[in-house]
Amino acid sequence: MSAGHSTYTPKTGFGKWLDERLPLPRLVYDSFVAYPVPRNLNNWYTFGGILSLMLVVQIITGVVLAM
Between the CA of residue 22 and those of 14, 15, 16, 17, 47, what are the distances in Å? Predict the structure, then answer.
């Protein structure tokens, strides 16, 4: 699914060893640090996402408390 190869390069010997055997640091880097996002995303999208999450939490909490 990714468009190209990863740009992650481990700096230490242990990091290189770990990346060859279990590329977990590469996965975390590609998923959270170098994640491609559109330029038109701004703080309002983040604020809306947080508000949506809070709405879902309130609905679930209300259903649980009403039981």
Answer: 12, 10, 10, 8, 35
